[in-house]
Structure formats: C-alpha cells, structure tokens
Write a structure and sequence with these properties.
567 residues, alpha/beta, eight-stranded parallel sheet, six-stranded antiparallel sheet, binds 1-deoxynojirimycin
C-alpha cells in the first residue's frame, strides 16, 4: 500500500464502537471485558470492520461508567490488565483491525488523585489543575453556566469554601487546560498509549476543554426560535454557549495534540464535539488537516426516517466541512437511543414491527455508501433494540435522576445478543444490565444462519465497500429528481461508477423519471451489485423498473459492449 494511503487508512475504514461493559464477558463476572473482545475478534473480522473504538478502559469510579477516570495510563481491573490489552492489540492488528481508545480529556473523576490533592487546600500545588472560584455572593455559584446534565455546573466544596466547575456530573470535575502542567500530564498519557501501539483516540467532549477566564455568563437563546430537534427544549439549550465551550484556545490545544499524534505514523483523532451546530462541530477539523481527522455530527443522531432529512443532514455536514476534511458518520452510539428505535418504534416490548429490519437495511446502506468514515455501534448489525428498563434496573446516573422523564442511556447499552441461550450468550453470570428480551429471536447465532438477515446484509455491504473503491474514496453526487419517496446518488472513482437507490416508503416507486436525469446518461442497463429485492448480478433497465417497498438497490452500469443478460 502507498505510504499516503497507509496513513489515511481511517478514510476507508468502517469503525465499530464497543461499549466495554456490554460486549462480551469472558471471566464470568457479568461485565464485558478485554478477553471477551479477543474471543470475538473472529466475529468482528468476519463482519468486515476495520477499526474498533473501545469506550474508556481506564480505571474509573464507574459513576459514569468509565467516563470518570482515576488513572489515565492504567487498565480498569474489571476489564483485565495491561497484558490483556497488549494481547488484544496484537491479535487485532494481526487481523488488520485497528484499535482506538476513548480519551476523557475534559474532566477526571472526583476520586482521581489529582483532584483529591487539588481540593485538599487552596494552596495545594494541584489547586490550579481544576477550575476553582469563589461564589458570586454567599450561597451563589460564580456564574450562571449550567451543566450538560443536571443543571448545576458549580459544586460548593466545604473544605476550602470554593466552588469547582463541572460541565457534566459533579463527580466529573473539569480540568483546567490553561494550566501547562495539565496539558503535559494529559499529553504524556496520550503518548503512553500511542507508544504502546494504539491507533488513535476518540476524544470525549472535545469542545469543552477551555472556558472563559472571566467566567462571563452566556446569553440566552430566543425562546421563540424555530426548533430543529427535541433536545432543544432542554434547559441546557436555553443558553448560547459562547463562554463555556467552543473557545479558540481549545483549537490551539487540539492542534498541538494533532502534532503529537502525527509524530507517530498512521494514527487518528476522532472528536466528540457535543453540539447540534454543524459548523461549530466542523470547526474541530481546523483547516482540514491540522486538527482532528474526524468529528461526529450530532444531527445524524436525531434525523428522522425521511429521505429529505437524511439528505439534508448529509449535505449540511458535507457543506460545513473545510475543504480537505473527511466526513465522519454515525447513527447511534452509547449516549443515544439506537436508531432502529427512532425509525421503527422505540422498544421491542411493543413486538417486532414488520418495517424494522427493512428500515434498518436502508439506514445501513445509507451509512455505508455515503462519503465518509462510518461508525457502527455494537449490536446495530443485528438490529438490537432499545430496552425498556424499570427504575430499579436503571444504572445510568442520568436515568436515576430523571426517570421516568428520561430513562437514561442504558436503553442502548444492554448486553450484546450473541445467542438465544442464557443471558443472551453474553455471560455465564447475571449481566450488569438486564439483556433485552428480544435476544430470543434477535441474536448473532440465528442471523449468521440466515442469508437474508440484517447481519448478512451488513456483511455483504462491508465486503462490497472493500471491493469497490468508488464506495470509499469516490465522489458523491445526489440526484435531485429523487427526494420525495426515495434517495438516489452515485459514487464515482476513476472509471468506476456506482448507483445507490433507497426507497424509504412501503410503496412501489417507478424509476422511469430517474432514468432520464442527465447524471445517468446515456441510458443503459445496470447490474445489481447488492440489494434487498433483487439477485446480485441481475440486470435492470431503470426506465421500466420499479423500486419495491423499502428496497435497497446498489448497481453498476453494464458497459455497452457487454451483451445484456436479460433475466
Ligand atoms: C460523552 C460520553 O460519550 C458520555 O457517555 C459521557 O457520559 C460524557 N461524555 C461525560 O464524559
């Protein structure tokens, strides 16, 4: 492979997010672990993914399940030890699978030794490693910033009579990235893992690293503004976050982190810029080559199952990116409800809806044929559902606080459904979170035996992506004629042209109008590469063809010289 394409492996890669606690438990304590992932590497290889993103593996107080770190260079004993991790890295690399780690940069756990020192006295050497301030007046926090989850962003600490700032839970105090010692300590931790051979990081809450030094209050949003998604009704969205996130200094830090990362070859930085503002998220690409390689776009997590919304979200993201930037694509992750629930009814207790799997196939085909690097979320390939949990079953602190208004994020974190056997084949012990009852029919074992299952479809799609460069590096062009019921677009690379048509509706749709669009001239026949309603290799003439309900069709032109094989 050319050196440049070796370095750019992440542009062709399909990433797979593993929620550590829930993927596979090998040591029988009910919690997923590193040896469990090693056991399932063959499965991941046969699925065809190129890189794994592991949610935090560091020792943690596990209040927010890994996102409250107590040691940045250690391994949480629940998951194994450093030799387990090195074995995972070696075995994954042997299968050509990269491994990236979650790096929780913005905050530590309250139990991190740094914070314990910092809170011990006002003149402690680590005092300035966190953000401590006096209240505005007795009993009043320093300003009106609010946290992303609980409302309060300042916690009063009796010992020293000051408040500390937390953008998330109070158990996760924000680090003061303006302090050079903090930066050095965190960069050293990054270097430690890069030296060990990890292929990069997913950076948690990356737009929150730096806050306004003067602690100015954020202005409020206009309450009568038009809402794009349901999240905007939350109190956190009432403020315009111009002083507590997305500050210029954050970009400077990330540029330095990029230089550090680039001093190792072939590594990647993927950022979680927690915002629905696509251009703010896109700003973390920097010039396109000097900040993060990939940044998630939160709008994919909320767009409904409508061709126009899919198209709008994709185009908006494409347009927001700087010239050399490469899109990053994901429909689900461990903080969001699984997209199958958004598209086809929330919970499996309502019974399996007929349209669930066909819709999941459309979503998969879209995600895996768009231009960019797709991120799959474990279990998405078998159509795992959002789980309904009773208050006494809830583990996520956000769910504990807000149930039933918000049942928390556990719904999309239930154990991977490997088989219809005990505990969904996830563990011999009682799992830390109850498996979703759908595992009786929705599991890897059954779907591996069914050529028409969602899992088989994902496998075929991933294989096709590997075979056809147009589907990874190719230019994308949407065909305007087709946006009311279905989407159509082409991917093009050198002489390779691929046409993708996705019918979002449960009705037949004629393609005769589409066949006349200039992009698809001269008219000719197409050969099916992959689809849900036609055989591979079958030829079709768009002029007389109809898309079947919820059909996915991926096809290539048949060269004129080649005689049509009429079916
Ligand atoms: C984003 C992570 O994805 C989420 O799970 C976590 O709770 C917060 N950041 C805080 O670290």
């Amino acid at each position: 492979m050319r050196e440049s394409s070796k370095n750019d492996w992440w542009k062709r890669a399909v990433f797979y997010e593993i929620y550590m606690r829930s993927f596979k438990d090998a040591n029988g304590d009910g919690v997923g672990d590193i040896p469990g992932i090693i056991e399932k590497l063959e499965y991941l290889h046969s699925l065809g993914v190129d890189a794994l993103w592991l949610t935090p593996i560091n020792p943690s107080t596990d209040y927010d399940f890994g996102y409250d770190v107590t040691d940045y260079t250690g391994v949480n004993p629940l998951f194994g030890n450093i030799s387990d991790f090195q074995r995972l890295l070696a075995e994954a690399h042997a299968l050509d699978i990269k491994v990236i780690l979650d790096f929780v940069l913005n905050h530590t756990s309250v139990e991190h030794p740094w914070f314990k020192e910092s809170r011990s006295s006002r003149d402690n050497l680590k005092r300035d490693w966190y953000i401590w301030r006096d209240g505005r007046s007795p009993g009043k926090p320093p300003n009106r910033w609010i946290s992303r989850v609980t409302g309060k962003a300042w916690e009063y600490d009796q010992t020293t009579g000051q408040y500390y700032y937390h953008a998330f839970f109070k158990q996760q105090p924000d680090l003061n990235w303006r302090n050079p010692e903090v930066k050095r300590a965190m960069f050293d931790a990054a270097k430690y893992w890069l030296d060990l051979g990890v292929d990069g990081f997913r950076l948690d809450l990356v737009n929150h690293l730096v806050e306004d030094e003067l602690l100015r209050d954020n202005p409020f949003n206009n309450p009568l503004r038009s809402f794009r998604n349901i999240h905007e009704i939350l109190p956190y969205e009432w403020q315009k976050h111009i002083y507590d996130r997305d500050l210029e200094e954050t970009h400077e830090i990330l540029k330095e982190l990029r230089s550090l990362t680039d001093s190792f070859s072939s590594r990647v930085l993927v950022g979680e810029a927690a915002t629905f503002d696509a251009s703010a998220a896109a700003s973390y690409y920097g010039s396109g080559s000097d900040e993060l390689h990939l940044v998630f776009n939160f709008n994919f997590f909320t767009c409904p199952f409508e061709p126009r919304s899919f198209l709008h979200t994709a185009l908006e993201w494409q347009d927001a990116l700087p010239q050399d930037a490469w899109p990053c694509l994901a429909f689900s992750n461990h903080d969001q409800p699984r997209h199958i629930g958004r598209f086809a009814g929330s919970f499996s207790i309502y019974g399996e809806r007929e349209d669930a799997i066909p819709k999941a196939k459309i979503a998969a085909a879209f995600l895996l044929t768009l231009r960019g690097s797709p991120f799959l979320y474990y279990g998405e390939e078998i159509g795992m559902r959002n789980s309904f949990l009773w208050p006494w079953e809830v583990k996520d602190p956000a769910g504990k606080i807000f149930w039933p208004l918000f049942q928390g994020r556990d719904m999309s974190r239930t154990p991977m459904q490997w088989s219809p056997g005990k505990n969904a084949g996830f563990s011999i012990a009682r799992p830390w979170l109850r498996p979703d009852p759908s595992y009786g029919y929705c599991n890897v074992l059954y779907q591996e035996q069914d050529p028409y299952s969602l899992l088989s479809f994902y496998r075929k799609l991933l294989r096709l992506r590997k075979e056809r460069e147009a589907l990874t590096l190719g230019e994308i062009e949407f065909i305007p004629a087709a946006t009311s019921d279905y989407l159509a677009y082409t991917r093009k690379f050198n002489n390779e042209l691929i046409l993708i048509i996705l019918n979002f509706k449960p009705i037949l749709n004629s393609l005769s109008q589409l066949s006349e669009t200039p992009q698809l001239q001269p008219p000719g026949s197409w050969r099916v590469l992959l689809g849900t309603s036609r055989r591979e290799g079958e030829s079709l003439d768009l002029k007389n063809a109809w898309m079947r309900p919820y059909e996915v069709l991926i096809a290539e032109p048949i060269p004129i010289s080649e005689p049509d094989r009429a079916d």
